[in-house]
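Tokens in:
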């Protein structure tokens, strides 16, 4: 698993803090002694290519951004259960990532809207798609100390669908809407591959994965609290005998079309086989610092979030309406996307969007959880 510099520094800092903590358990105010069950749904999406709805529906109504590079959606639905310090989770998750560059996004937009690729001399292709869908179980344990708590969750996932597609190369456009050039294609897939190769029971379509999640809460003093949640801190997924293609696509084949013009027939040369495949998921980091105003229900907060290899920075405030009721309002200071969170003893709700017009939204987060304590 690749460790980013930010993650490495954070891990070192937290480990040094843990060493300084008192190591005897206590029944603090944050104790998880009460048993509870939660049903939840979570969806987090972001794109700097074009609006999320257009990207998901593959309906390119407008030109992509000039700095196009990434789009992702991560979704999960499931049940959480706590008995004292032990937690259990069953969940279904769907992760989809698109990594590209401005040339590829522009060429794809022109092709999808039947426009000739003549806005520049050539287009350098760089496209990577990753998709996985799985059902899993997580088992966790929560440790409570005087001013510190932590939880580790280990997950086992049964992968029902996956795809890893990579295209690199260079293409050229002509006024008659023909496209010439060469590209290299590498794909692992259980279905929906670029070449639309059918599975005649020649390859497997499932596998398994292991994940580790980590959560921490530290009461630094009466005014300062630091919370850290890292999902997919470690992840390793393995699939055997998955569908596999590797080869080159070029336009060296030519013919004269019915209108008398020269046309190009793309040719694919390569292998179509089966192969073992392994992948991991980018970690999701959520680090929040809270500063409480003296003799007030108001707290100021700063938040760092990393998801899909994108960094997000938030500033905001929290209002404590009662011991079991809290509202948080934050602003993503780079993407200007407001986020609101409301939590009480039976309901948790999160909503964030960067545009009131859903057709133009590049960032959209939605979370809902219903809790029952017993």
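Residues out:
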């Amino acid at each position: 698993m690749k460790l980013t510099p930010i993650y490495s520094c954070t891990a070192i800092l937290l480990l040094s803090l843990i060493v300084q903590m008192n190591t005897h358990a206590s029944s603090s105010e944050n104790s998880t002694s009460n048993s509870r069950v939660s049903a939840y749904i979570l969806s987090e999406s972001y794109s700097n290519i074009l609006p999320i709805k257009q990207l998901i529906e593959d309906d390119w109504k407008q030109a992509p951004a000039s700095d196009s590079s990434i789009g992702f959606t991560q979704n999960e639905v499931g049940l959480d259960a706590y008995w004292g310090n032990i937690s259990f989770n069953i969940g279904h998750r769907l992760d989809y990532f698109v990594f590209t560059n401005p040339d590829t996004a522009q060429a794809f937009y022109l092709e999808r809207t039947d426009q000739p690729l003549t806005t520049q001399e050539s287009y350098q292709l760089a496209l990577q798609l990753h998709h996985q869908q799985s059902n899993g179980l997580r088992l966790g344990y929560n440790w409570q100390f005087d001013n510190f708590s932590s939880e580790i969750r280990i997950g086992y996932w049964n992968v029902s669908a996956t795809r890893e597609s990579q295209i690199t190369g260079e293409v050229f456009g002509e006024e008659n809407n023909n496209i010439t050039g060469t590209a290299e294609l590498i794909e692992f897939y259980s279905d929906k591959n670029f070449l639309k190769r059918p599975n005649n029971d020649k390859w497997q379509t499932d596998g398994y994965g292991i994940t580790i999640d980590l959560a921490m809460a530290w009461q630094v003093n009466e005014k300062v609290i630091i919370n850290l949640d890292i999902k997919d801190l470690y992840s390793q997924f393995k699939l055997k005998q998955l569908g596999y293609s590797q080869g080159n696509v070029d336009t060296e084949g030519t013919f004269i079309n019915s209108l008398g013009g020269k046309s190009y027939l793309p040719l694919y040369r390569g292998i179509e086989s089966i192969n073992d495949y392994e992948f991991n998921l980018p970690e999701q980091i959520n680090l929040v610092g809270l500063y409480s105003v003296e003799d007030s229900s108001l707290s100021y907060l700063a938040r760092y979030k990393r998801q899909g290899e994108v960094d997000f920075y938030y500033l905001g405030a929290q209002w404590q309406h009662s011991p079991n009721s809290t509202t948080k309002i934050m602003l993503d200071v780079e993407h200007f996307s407001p986020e609101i969170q409301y939590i009480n003893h039976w309901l948790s709700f999160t909503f964030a969007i960067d545009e009131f017009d859903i057709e133009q939204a590049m960032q959209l987060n939605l979370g809902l959880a219903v809790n029952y304590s017993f």
